[in-house]
Amino acid sequence: MVRWTFRQYKLIRGLLSFNLGEDTERINPSIPVRSLSCETETNEEWKLFSIKLDMQNVALHLIKSHSTNSPLTCINFIKSHLTVETFSNMCQDIDLVSQEILIMDTRFHGVSPVENGNVFTSILQSIKYSKDDELIQAEVHSRRRLDHYKVTVLLNNMRLMAIFDWWVSVKEYIFTEIENVASSPEHQVMIPKKQENITVDLTLNITSSEIVLVENCSQWDTNAVILKSTTVLKHRPHNLEKPLSCSLNNLEMFSCILGLEDETALSIIDPITLGIDINKDDVLDVQLQFLTVRLSYHDICMFKKMLESLPKQLVFIKDESPDHSSLMNGQISTLTGLGFKKEDCIKALEICENRLDDAALWLTHNAIAASARTVKSTPSVKVNAVEVKANRISICIIDDCGDSDVPLLELSFSDLQLYQLLPELNINDPVYPQGSLQCSLASDYYNRVLSGWEPVLEPWRCKIGWEKAVSQGSLSNRLTMKVDSEDIFNINITSTLIELYSQVKENWTKDYYTSSDTQTGNPNKQGMSSTIDSFRRRSPFIPFALKNDTGSPLKFTTHISDLNNSKSPVVNRSDENWIITQCHFLFRGRDKMRHQDSHKTRLHQLVVKVEDYQCVEPVTVDKVGVYFRDAPLEGQLPSPALPPVRIVFDVALEGSARKLVTIRSALLIVNSLPLAVEINLKNKLPNDDLARWVPTTSFIVNPKATLAVPLVHTHSQINIKPHNGPHQYTYCMPTINWNQMPNNYDRGIISVVPVFEQPAHRIVLLPTVKLENLLPLDIGYNLSGEQGVIRGGSCAAITAVDPEKVVELAITLDNFKTCNTVVVPSGCNTEFSARIKFEDRKQRKLHLLADISLNRITISAYYWIINRTGLPLVFRQSGSSVESAGQFEEHEQARMVAPLLFSFSDQDASHTINARVGKKCCLEWHATVVFELSRPEKYPISKITCHDERRHIRLVLEQYQIHMPFHWSRLDKEQLLCVSILDIPDCCWSGGLKIDNNDSMHINVRDANGRVYFLRLEVLLQGATFFIVFTDADTMPPPIRVDNFSEVSIAFGQSCYIDVMHSTARAHSSVPYAWDEPTKSYVMRLIAPGGVSNTYNMSNLGSANVKDPLDVECQELVLDVLKNNRVILAHKIPGERSQLWRMTSEGHIQHEGSSPPSHPNQPRRQENIVVLDIENTAPQPNTYSRLILRRVDPRRQSTQRWRFTEEGRLCCNHYNMCVQPQDGFYGLRAGTAAVLGMPQPICHKLTDKGIPIEQAIERQRLRPGLDFCLSTFTWMVRPKSSA
């Protein structure tokens, strides 16, 4: 046994590294290797250095410190052999062979069980123990040659415990930096020479080994996940075609309870062969055939707890780390910034007593900077992308929460091809992550009722591509996704799927929060008690349960048959296979590959044998339903004297997924009476048809309970009497027989053999009369002497009435007296209705309806009147002089709370209703009454609901839940609703909202500073009332979003409201928006800096540009006339008469605005016509003449006749003189005078036809679509003869 402290370990490491392990490669040999090889006749090599160690039962204890007694780990070399050899040709061989090695965690050695943080002390151990001495557990072989370096590692039959805090502690312990003395040559900064043409070959072979992750490392029987595989890894950096290849054979993952792996193992990943390669394009290529992942609810919870336990495991390491003050931490960060290691900086500060300058000087002499210590090297393996190819990947979600363990949902990817490009952080040429997925996607859910899979998403072939890039002006990256498919996306949603979703969601949510409350609800419990309370073990699920209601002992056996096999199942009837009746049973034992055969067409059948009867044929119990089999007596053939019995198999769901198989007879007795009854089953006399005699049996059946008659008594006589009643009763006479029902009513007999019959009946015990009250108030009754009170909507079961006699029914109501009774004749088997007459104290009549059936009497009203107006209303029949019955003085001043029973008492009058406000109501009523006629499902009568045409405003915000009735106070005004938020200072009213239709919208509410606050409005019509619901607008996005990708801020708003208030979208920002005036036109106006604006109709989608008035091409300048008849340039105004001109056939350009409008067919007076002319007497070549209006003068034809040239100029009869703005190009603005002159020699901008832009003048029509001339064609059409 060897015990090393941390200081001793560093000493031995330094001895091995800097003494025995001195780098002798730098020492030049006295005789060159090449010359030595030439002088010798042979290539014989000899050993320079050799170490051979045989270790038998050697234990190496690593201890942090003897003083604190803090052990770390123990490495047991039970049987190992180490060989190190160095040869004369500078080659080296290292071989380590271990037949058995054990690594243990000794941190909690001698600690009490309560404080023990890890009970799994064997970190690395052998899985199987064998007496064979040749079994190798670990091998390491290293071969170093002049041109290559090869390392082979073999691990066999090993279990590795993933105790993360232990691994981190051991890593820090072993890989601690070893310091050397300053005078050693090894301490000098030396950069090794780059060796070329040296290949490295690493081979890792792991056989039948596993990695174990535990949920709670302080318990022995905790849940765990085991990853098991046989792996071959080859790393050849100089192989450009395939630098890395990995083959995972029989890779599997399963969950279990440690110590009971074989009994509790449940597969998560089925065994699979996986190939991983890195090709020459630096692409990680993953190839697999079929991958099946089974993930259950307990597995998800277990993985969640494992992730949550990682920070707790690392707390122990953090507590042991040295604690430094804030001042020392600042000094350490300053020294580490110079390139020194943190450990060296701490040591320097301790030696120099926290003097920063002295510590820095000490580091320069006694430590090596990180920049000098490290040699920059490029990574040998580089991965730029990942590519996955698989024939099929199946992910099955299992519901094992609570009392179920059945498949829930399966998602499959067929012919999958996945490509993902990894990001590369390069400032000059960054690579953003992008990828594609091509597969056939399908999804199924498991129908628990039918025990089979049903499709949710039918196979859908698709190609999905995505790309994530940084968008300009965006705070976060944007993910762009594109989906292409030629197939139809078919989704099947059934009621069973919706019910299953609701059930699973409720069970999972309840269990999750219950377990969370259990763990956090007991903060006072510590140590092992709290750990045990929070630990949950997976309980085994048994999918089938059996209930014996036959009244006789039975035994059963199970059988699984293939549906594709046409042969009938062969049942072994030996006594060894029969199972005595038990509550739960399985068809097969527990399987590691759970639910693997759920897609196979197999039938789970049950074979039952009741005592004294023969075995029945197999019954399939996979589907919910009712099935039956006939069982003859044992040892006899069927005969009329001894008929077979009918055995019923009732399969139903118990809980979430367990199927309960109830075995009973085909005869049921249901007690629908309000009291318990005693049932006596008496066998028939021996001289009857049935010669089999059984003893008499009695049963007590409670109300609303059902009794399955025992098999042996299905042909017995049935006698019934009340149990524990106020009187003593005898059994009924005559007896009840299911095969002797009067008139064969509801007989439903199923005959298997024509000679005898078998029962398939349900005998229901009902009261003689069931009196049901369908009125909204209580009534009193007197039925043949039996009296009582029935609440509204309830019923009374009356058993003291003889139906063979005449029955009289009298009904009483508060504030009414009965005028007649209902008489039911004796033995009445027909249904009829009767009218019951009532009178109130004012002699006003009310009629009720009584419906009489076989054993039921229903009392109802013709109409109910429900007043929901909030006003006292009084009703009467139209044409009647008195109000309806039941209305008194209180109805004149207050609204009735209970519904008013109403009937049309006068059959000759109109069957309409009138209403008025109570006489003692002082309210001025402006509302409109709306009557709604409906028929409730429960009550076979009509209901009249009286509403006023009003609204209910409901405010559902984060802090408020308010309801308020509302109606318009003025009907002559426009009915628009405006809202304001009181919690916002200086909040303004919103725009008008129409609330007379079902609608949903966002409301834009602003404050005095123009800030926007959104509310969500929902208008719903229920009955005759509109419900206006205001909610927070966080759940839905606003209808409009303005994305400003320009470099300037944009002001925007609704065109009719922008002059009042507007919103602003800054450069490279997105601003949500909703209409300020929802009832007005949806036109938005944008205003750019400098007053550039344009309007857009949001009903039309597309792109448009904002016209800049400062741009010469977007000003739309036209010729306009001032009051002094001078012509200037002005912006185009549609419909402005001063900008309208007419060109005649003589070439004159007449001004329309200077003469009154006239009909085109009427001639104009010459004195009212003015045309375009120049101000000067004649044009001058070196000057410009202003344009004005003059009367037509034949002497000025050279300046009053104009033409439009092909280039796009407006010219007069003088050659090379055209119309243009004063000052040329710089005069293209509104208000500039229009002149006639020679073109300027300087040109700033040309049109498409090659003329200066200031000289381009064209004609535009007042009405678009008009042309300069109309062409007409006249031709003859040959008439066609009609048949």
From TrEMBL:
Pfam families: VPS13_M, VPS13_VAB
Domain UBA: 321-366
InterPro entries the UniProt entry points to: Ricin_B-like_lectins, UBA, UBA-like_sf, VP13D_UBA, VPS13, VPS13-like_M, VPS13_VAB
Protein name per UniProt: UBA domain-containing protein
Source organism of the structure: Molorchus minor
